[in-house]
Amino acid sequence: MPQKNRTTTGVLGGLLGLVGLSAVAGVLVTATVTPALAVSSAAATSAINMFDNLPSVLTIDKLILPSTIYAKNDKGQYTTMATFYDQNRSPVTFDQIAPVMFDAILSSEDPRFYEHGGIDLIGTTRAILSNVKGDANTQGGSSISQQYVKNVLIQQCDWNAKTEKELNTCWEKATNATGTDGIQRKLQEMRYAIALEQRYSKNDILLGYLNIANFGGTTYGIEAAAQRYFGVSASKLNLAQAATLAGIVQNPNTYRIDLPGSKTNGDANHYAETKKRQSYVLGRMLHDGKITQKQFDDADKAPITPKITTPTTGCSATYAHYFCEYVTDTITNDPAFGATPDERAQLLRKGGLKIYTTFDARVQQAADAAQAKYSPQSMPGFQFGSASVSIEAGTGRVLAIAQNTKYVPGAATAPGETSVVYAGTKAVGGSNGFNAGSTFKLFTLLDWLEQGRSINEVVDGRGKPVRTFKDSCVPGGVYTNGNYVPKNFANERPMFGTPAQFTKMSLNTGFWGMAAQLDLCDIGKMAGRLGVSLGDGTTVPLATDQPSAYEILGSDSVSPLSMAAAYATVAANGIYCQPKVIDKVTDSDNKALPIPDTKCSQVIDPKVAATAASALRGVMQGGGTGSQGNPNDGTQLIGKTGTHETRQTWLITSSTKVTTANVVGTVSGPDSVNLSRLTYNGIQLWNLRYRIARSIQGAIDQWYPGGQFPAPDRNLTRFVLRDLPNVVGMSQDQATQTLNSAGFQVQVGGPVDSDLPAGTIAQQDPGAGKTAGGATVTISPSNGQGLSVPDVSGQKSSDAAAQLHAAGFANVAECKQGDAVVSSTDPPSSTMTNRSTKITLTCKDSGKGNGGGPGGNG
After folding, report:
1. What is the pLDDT of residues 692-711, one digit of tens each?
2. DSSP 62
3. H-helix segments, 506-592
4. What count of Cα atoms within 13 Å lies in the side-chain half-sphere of residue 312?
5. Using DSSP, how many helices (H) and how many strands (E) does the chain show?
6. Per residue in 277-315, is it b (16+ CB within 10 Å) or e — as a string?
7. Is 274:265 a contact under the CB 8 Å cutoff?
8. CA nearest 210: which of 249, 239, 169?
9. Exposure of 537 by Cβ count < 10 A (0-12 exposed, 13-18 middle, 19+ buried)?
């Protein structure tokens, strides 16, 4: 700080302060050494009265400590994932410090520490005389107790200052050593120091000082200093190292030895400034009889040889960068850790928290490996992103978060670099989410089942225009659709079908038809019940007074983590668990702190969940859109694919134990990006999801063996019978329309022989009556050439032939006996057959025998 202008008043005030301080110091030292001596002089009494008016109780706050995030390794043991600090400090106990360190610090800083009552009168007076004279180089002289007091006051500044300006002002007040302000500070220091020694033992004060003192930069406390500068613990310090550290503490940023490039105190001049200070400390130790002459000589001759160990801090220090980032964002955004973001951030950097996470190193390594193997870090022309997040079904514990990019804290400087956690939300992770695509169809399926509808009920999925939808969220309860009519992504033929079929094939037109029979608001509320909101974390899709019907097909941006939790709800028999990344948090005293409030609750009926799982299993089986992502290791899986406008693709997979959401696509860039036209290592970008999902799910199945999903509910899988109308005699168009309207699919067969007009439907299979809705009905038109064979039995052959010719049959084969009686025809009577068909007559025997009648031989 600049030297203040010294006025006559200031000088006189300083001198008076010196007189008062000297009197106070003399009386106090006498009182502490020889309490029985009486104090009677007026000057001393006045000084003590002035001294007594100063505050005496110093609040010793908790040390500012690093916070540590812990994660279990592959052996189930908690290990350090990351640390965060403003002050790198590791407090130790008295017996964890080498005795030579105590000798070094006491000989150089306070050789009479165990003799005085908190104030070293000789040293203090010398320092104040120097201050009053205005010497440029102020002298020290404070006792260890006073230095401890000063460090406690400085730490209070670090804890309490809200702004940089407040911090600087507080620091100046706590450290000012010049003029009357400096004398005032010294008086207060003395007052606190004496009170301190009445409350704590000498060893406690000495230990407190060594644990709080700054040793240069962000290195605080003797343990962190020993590790930082020499790579050893405080208990292993040797004489030369201890003397060096004792020298550093006197002027930390001048004597620190971790700046080898320094011109005044660096590697080139063998840390000359620190070496001088080390020699001074060694000399004081020799003077006090703490070391021998030989020990002095050996240590003094030896060069200072730092072994700098740089402590790691922040999420850059771990391989699980994005999981770590999500944990820190969780803390800084949750009121459980403080009323404001600044308070929460300060707690993380200074509060000595121990944060135990839900992390599983095995799953993380598998996810990282899949991302590294299959996804490019960047693509030219747009920001490309690929993310995977795995969550334990039934608990909500997040096991891993991985993505394709390189983690760089703060603003990205190159393509493929970011600190944004793609799996998260804007508030926690910094991501806006991804368009859900067909993964969002889950909520229409669940609402369908919740209304008691069957997954085997036939629905008109032909993608017909729907002008109005029921929607209880909008005024009037009806949403009016525009001209939007969905198409199927891969141009599949729209059809009548069942929700089970629509889910397996992911048919947009089918879900459009399902939604037309539901309430759009209920579909949105279903998403909300399962924890899904827009990427901003505030608005539930569809459940607003300004919805869009096409939201049911996944046009909204949502977080992969929320979608994983939604599908995990199905896997957990309808129990939704809010995702959590923290199992436990303790403070610096190992006292458990409240953690972010996450709950598990039954949000859908287990029967609905089991039946939805039955439909979603079809997605992962042969012919299903997600089957390419199935590792086929015998584990039952449910899942769902999703694609939005060729720019973002999903595959969510789940066993009964773990759900993983995988998303690949554009984070930002032109709308014209088409992932089907871009490749990486010969694979279309939109197909990377299958490789990634298969790899991660296969690994997870080894460590979290999944079981069998519950059987679907019988009522929700029932086949719904419908009345099949009779369309014989109708035109082909009329018959098709009639059958479609009744909920049946139509197949046109070849023309059949019929006496109906050509083109008129002559046959249908199956025939009219009750049958399963959605069945395919084959209709066959008449060829107009059909005739019904008349019944000519009992007639003479010639008469029968004449009748058949008259009926239109040209080819008739009569019996050999023209007068024989016809018993049958081939084809039989009443058979409809072509007029050119040969009709063969079969006649009875004439019956004339050779026996006589009356009058025969008798």
Report:
1. 999 999 999 999 999 999 99
2. P
3. 508-515, 520-529, 560-571
4. 12
5. 25, 31
6. bbebbbbbbbeeebbeeebbeebeeeebebeeeeeebeb
7. yes
8. 249
9. middle
Element holding 332 (H helix, E strand):
helix 321-333
Residue 664: what residue type? V
CB 674 within 8 A of CB 649: no
Provide the β-strand partners of residue 839: 812
The answer to whether 650 and 562 are in contact (CB under 8 A) is no
Residues near 10 by beta carbon (within 8 Å), at least 6 away in sequence: 4, 179, 180
Closest CA to 693 of 668, 667, 658: 658
Question: Which of 855, 383, 856 has its CA nearest to residue 665?
Answer: 383
Locus of tokens 């799996």: 423
What's the burial of 593, exposed, middle or buried (CB within 10 Å: 0-12/13-18/19+)? middle
Model's pTM, two decimal places?
0.82
Rounded distance between C-alpha atoms, residue 442 and residue 552, angstroms:
9
> Would you state the pLDDT for residue 37?
37
Which residues share a beta bridge with 398?
391
pLDDT at position 188 is 84
Q: How far apart are CA 462 and CA 292, in angstroms?
A: 98
Q: Which residue has the tokens 């960047």?
A: 378
Give the pairing type, strands 776-781 and 745-748: parallel
The tokens describing 64, both together, are 């500012």
Q: Please give the distance of CA 316 from its chain centroid, rounded to a whole number.
A: 18
DSSP codes, 387-435: EEEEEETTT-BEEEEEESSEE-SSS--STTEE---TTSBTTTBS---EE
HEC per residue, 688-732: HHHHHHHHHHHHHHHHCCCCCCCCCCCHHHCCCEEEECCCCCCCH
Which amino acid is located at 525 in the chain? K
Beta bridge mates, 778 = 747, 765
- Rounded distance, CA 623 to CA 754, Å? 40
User: Is the dihedral angle over the CA atoms 177, 183, 188, 192 positive or is it negative?
Assistant: positive
Instruction: For the beta carbon of residue 140, count every other beta carbon within 10 angstroms.
Output: 16
User: Phi and psi for 853 in degrees, rounded to 5?
Assistant: -100, -145
Spatial contact of 602 and 575, defined as CB atoms under 8 Å apart? yes
Q: Lowest mean pLDDT: which of 35-39, 66-70, 289-293, 679-683?
A: 35-39
Annotate 777-812 with three-state secondary structure.
Answer: EEEEEECCCEEECCCCCCCEHHHHHHHHHHHCCCCE
pLDDT tens digits for range 287-344: 999 999 999 999 999 999 999 998 889 999 898 999 999 999 999 999 989 999 999 9
For residues 229 and 74, give the distance between their C-alpha atoms in angstroms, rounded to a whole number.
Answer: 32
